[in-house]
Amino acid sequence: MEIGSSGPVAADQSDARLQRSGICPAPARSPSEPPGRFGDLSELSIEELTDVVTRAWGGGRVAGPHRRGARVLLTHLAGFPGPTWQERWDASGLNTPGQRVADIAGPPVGRAGHREAVTRGLRALLCVRAFQPALTALRSNRILGLAETFRMVEGDPFLDRFFDEEARSGRSATVRTAAALDVTYALLSQGIGLRDLTPEALLHYGVESRRLRVTPGVVGTANRLAGGAAWDVLHRMGHFAPGAPHSLKAAYLNGGQRTPTELVDRHHISCAEIRQVLIEYLERRRAECDYSSWSALSLRLVGQFWKQIELIDPGQKDLRLPSHTYEQWVAGLRVRTDGRTRLRPDSILATVRAFYLDLQSWAIEEPDRWAQWAVPCPVRPGTGRRSRAQTAGERADRRPDQGTPAMASHPRGTCRAAAHPSPRHPRSESRDRGRR
């Protein structure tokens, strides 16, 4: 199978990881012939294209509603510039996220039947491949029965086999529906048939869905990729070349775990000495964590702590922070980069405190290496715990009383710095024993 390598890559941070594993997310190459049963429809007249829709549904009463809906949408598109339907579609603005095709029929009140007809027309035109929609257009419109209808009109034995294999998988109806829609959306948005859907192309669909935040079932900024169930079926039926990863997650992670240097360098730390300390710190902590927790540790320590310190004070060259720099950084923790309130700043504070205390402890064991970095920790004892309690209390105050106590959430990672405070400095422990 030929590996697709052309086209834009969807997510910068995904690129390096997937390139190292041998699979880079990239849209499929344009086929030599137009996909679908009906060939090139780009310059047909409205009448000719609605006749294609009629043939696709076998004529008669069944085809009537689809033909009428297609005519309404085509008439609307005809008002935009371009000699082809693809150019008119692109110029119409209907690829814009959140823009529904049904809106051309007017507001929902009193126009439900007209809006449904336009959406039915969109489904018909997509199924006959009148134009190639963007992924945002597919996710913005609620197109009932699209996957099964597309399978029927496409008439592709490879696609039929995929649907049959998924039906025999024993998975829930929800998972089967998601797999069918993921394949349908991937084929329509990339303008290909199933035989041209490579691992690279399905990965591209997954990372694009995540980048655009249109992955079904994902709330907010969660990082789950679309297409996992579809990948499983395609791999099981031998669609991908031998040696392809057995799952979408494996394709994304296998061979793609970053080194400590890569984890630090993605944040572009200016001070070479601090950069090296961070790299060596992560190297030493690696054995204590699973990869996901370790990567999260690097994000908190390097990206959310030291990189922000350098932005506040570009001249800062050591870990001994002036109080005004530290206070400005703490104040900035309350707001995320997207402008929303950060609910768990305590996890970052706990990570930073563990970092300083670890260096103090290591300085006793290996003074030649770590003593110069053993400086007072700017994060006061208990700061993270108080922050967590206050944040939880504020959320509880805003939460309607549902008759059950709110349960505090905990991070899923197992890395020590995220789960509980780092071992304290030996001198501190001695002082505590003396008090007892």
Folded structure, characterized:
The chain is an all-alpha fold and 436 residues long. The protein is built from 21 helices and no strands. The protein has helices at 12-20, 46-56, 60-77, 85-91, 112-127, 135-140, 146-154, 157-167, 173-190, 199-211, 228-236, 248-253, 260-265, 272-285, 291-312, 323-332, 345-365, 367-370, 383-398, 416-419, 426-435.
Brief descriptors of the model:
about 425 residues, mainly alpha, 21 helices, disordered N terminus, disordered C terminus
For the sheet with most strands, the description reads:
none
Percent of residues in β-strands = under 5%
Shape: elongated
Question: What is the rounded distance between the termini?
Answer: 71 Å
What's the order of the H and E elements?
Answer: HHHHHHHHHHHHHHHHHHHHH
- Spatial extent as radius of gyration: 28 Å
Mean pLDDT: 82
Number of strands: 0
* Individual helix count: 21
Helical residue percent band: 55-70%
- Indicate the structural class: mainly alpha
Low-confidence stretches: 1-21, 386-414, 416-436
The oligomeric status of these chains comes to: single chain
